[in-house]
Amino acid sequence: MSLVSAFVPIWILTAVGYAACRWGLLGEAVASVLGRFVFHLAMPSALFLALSRMPLSGFAGRSLLAFGVCTAAVVGFGWVGASRLFGRKPGERPIWGMAAGYVNSANLGIPIATQVLGNVSFLAEVVLLQVLVVTPVVLVALDRHSDPAGRVRVRRIASLPVRNPVILASLLGVACSAAGLHLPSAADASLSLLSGAAVPAALVALGASLHRTAPSGAEPPDLAELAVITALKLVAQPVIAYAAGLALHLSAPQLLAVVVCAGLPTAQNTFIFGQEYGVGEAVANRAVVVTTTLSLATLAAAAALLG
């Protein structure tokens, strides 16, 4: 299967999810229910199996460095640009930075990696980088700006790995790999079945979520603001990843993996964090919808060029 043709099942299942939501075939809560299933069960199973079966020596250090460079550059530019270009308040800047550079490594990342890259090994490393490095930085900033005294809830942030099934499953997978542990056959088979459901369920949920509307009462973001976020996410981040990959002398498959992962759309966590802290909800919501819709074309183009 060619790289571009690998996107065909992604487009079809996304369209199926969109149609199911539009015609009410699966109920109004289809996106929410499928999303929770993927997030709490299927996705953690897939990441745990991938990491537990991968030797620690197999971690792609240079590839992850290239991805880290592009993420830091785009999130940082978005964080600062939110204030300099559009006058965003300090509490909104972390959400703006996330919208520009925090990729959807889970719901959309797994089906993309499975179809285009053939496995989720590098994606699992991207998940670890985002949730163990980028997420705490964003939460610390949001906590500090949301607290009248500027305090940070250290206990809440420190407990994040235990409360988040994706992080927990990833850490357990790394621990099993390091200890050389193997699951009993029944447990391994059960997790394999769950992980197999991650891709189709995530894509159907993705299609259904494209009906998402802006939060009620929230002022929609300026079109210029949304255009800058979209350009940073879908153009600047993969281009910087490509340049960093060339500078680090990555092989062609490694370069493809880094660019494809960098070109993933804005993560839904951006909207969730904005909603929880009451800042930047409209920007995050529109960024998720627009970048998700356009990324199906930009990712296919990147795969075709690098292929």
UniProtKB/TrEMBL annotation:
Keyword line: Cell membrane, Membrane, Transmembrane, Transmembrane helix, Transport
Protein localization: Membrane
Record-linked InterPro entries: Mem_transp_PIN-like
Keyword check for Glycosyltransferase: no
Keyword Transmembrane applies: yes
Transmembrane regions listed in the UniProt entry: 29-51, 63-82, 122-142, 162-183, 223-248, 254-274, 286-306
Domain of life: Bacteria
A GO biological-process term: transmembrane transport
Chief localization: membrane
Membrane topology: Multi-pass membrane protein
Pfam families with a match to the protein in the record: Mem_trans
GO CC annotation: membrane
PANTHER family recorded: AUXIN EFFLUX CARRIER FAMILY PROTEIN (PTHR36838), TRANSPORTER AUXIN EFFLUX CARRIER EC FAMILY (PTHR36838:SF3)
Name listed for the protein in its UniProt record: AEC family transporter
